[in-house]
Amino acid sequence: MFGGHHTPRSRCGVGPSPRADDALNWIPARLTALLLVPGRLAALRREAGRTPSPNAGWPMGALALALGVRLEKRGVYMLNPSGRAPEPADLHRALARVRRAAALAYALAALLGWGAWGV
Fold first, then answer.
1. What pLDDT does residue 3 have?
2. Burial status of residue 99 (CB atoms within 10 A of its CB: 0-12, 13-18, 19 or more)
């Protein structure tokens, strides 16, 4: 499950540091995806599984689904293959969605923090 990113020509990402990175980002990647596209867990799992990374596919797949676009790294993966090609206006839509997800994450963190401190 965890072990860094490997390519046919390189074993970059081998060792404890990339494994720790993968492990520590496992939960944040999935929470980010769920904040970007709430209620679409099955679709998010499908899209995230298309990438070689255990974590990167989650937020990328979430935005591809949310915007209805196809995101591709030729020869490696294609997210939301039935989506349309991205257009410049999609950048603004993506940024707006990320801002909303970040605001929600901050609000949730504040609520959890207040609850943990008994405030």
1. 56
2. exposed
